[in-house]
Amino acid sequence: MRDRLKTLAWLGAVLVAFTLYPWAFPTKLNLGVVIVLFAGMATAWDVLGGWAGQLSLGHAALVGIGGYTLALLSLRAGVPPWWGLLAGMALTGAVAAFWGWIVFRLRGPYFVLSTIAVAEILRLVAINWKDLTGGAEGLFLRELPRPFGLDLFNRTVEFYLALAYLGVALLVAWWLSWSRFGYSLQAIREDQDSAMAMGINPTRTKILAFMVSAALTAMGGSLYAIYLSFFEPHIVLDIGLSVELALIAYIGGAGTVFGPTIGAVVLLAAGDLFRNYFQQANLLIYGILIILVVRFAPEGIVGGWHALVRRLIRPAPGVPVEVRGERP
Amino acid sequence: MSAGPILEVERVHQNFGGLLALQDVSLSVEEGEILGLIGPNGAGKTTLFNVISGYLKPTAGSVRFLGEDVTGLPPYRLAAMGMGRTFQIVRPFPKLTVLENVLIGAFLRTSSRGEAEERAWEVLELTGLVPFASRPAAGLNLAGRKRLEIARALALRPRLLLLDEVVAGLNPTEADATVDLIRRIRDRGVTVIIVEHVMRVIMGLSDRVVVLNYGRKIAEGTPQEVASNPAVVAAYLGE
Question: What's phi and psi for B43, nearest 5 deg?
Fold first, then answer.
């Protein structure tokens, strides 16, 4: 109970700290929106990839469905973006349910393979079905309604919308950290046979996790579409985006409340810095950074931090604990 | 549902691609008893556990639990009905703490974190794991992990508990503590089936013993009857 409230307090502190960003870095608003949006989407990815341990390399499909649903409903039918956002979430939730129902009955690498395949199929459909999606030329969101007089193309407005989204994603992750559903996911990740002996239905639980992860990712995808305002299949449906979301979560710490957010801040800020200071060498440095984290903190930054704290506080790590035979 | 046996295994066959792991095995277990299941290595004891607990669908035959035909039901359904089991090769959730491991079991009966935690502490108390509650399960020694297997299964509030070699590999003091624990579990009204290699334990604990050899049931009776059964002696010592 105390841990739960402590995490919630930290969550509030993180969000408050982010609200100061537009004042602290007024010239870096674009980067800010992207960091916060990707933090939210990586947290959404982590529901399935980290907490439930089901690696997805196709979350771009969900970002894309979210973005395209909002944009197409707006452009073709004049539907306001908030309804478009909800429609995208509902649609991806349904897609995830069907997809999970097919593939989660199998164990092994089938799920991750299917994620790559589905995302690629959607990308190709988006490129070739020109009448619907605008094809490779992409879509241009020229104007959107102004809810409460807010200009949705204003970067500051977008930043706070993204922050609200990150807040929702973090609350979901926080709920996973203590609830029955969250522990069911962790049990499946740690040992599926054991989880079944504990009364957990792995197929059903994984499908639910996928639905939550998908709807939450689509929510971010809708906002990403507004932020981009002009977007095309090779941006929102690319496997590079899928890999980036997974990487952010892993580097930060998969299956932890704040790991994906930390990963987004570190990787995206570092990427921006390196681009400015090292020009062409930036990807090299980026790669070295990733190797360093994997080498020295294989559990991500959050896991590495916990290991460090444990080593400093508790003596003799790694020695098995003796449970003696005396009667309790 | 009280009158009949809590578990009935009827004429179960298990065929692994030509290898008959179980042949025509039948047994029944009465509510409140401790049934010992013994046999030489490879006799089919763990296979039978896997059939009973839903991890294997038998090639032929049926399993009835609490009077219902549960043949082929998945393990999580059986757990919900009140069947708890441990694994011979212990498989705790390694990264989670001892408390969290037990908590996951307790969540079967309630979605309230508070109630589940209460139940988990109760079980940790009973199994003597309280001092290790906040340690990661991967950090326990073998005795601790075997105890944790029992604790997790108990958190499910089972009516029938299948214990697969929870004593083997423990030193005598640890073994005595576990035997004592199993007795206390039975005294709380839980029916127990125990697979064990350590004869001293089986003979001391069981009300009744079933002996398997090469996938067949070769004897059944009180520990004394079984120990003096020539077929059992032959199976263990060779002819």
Answer: -75, -15
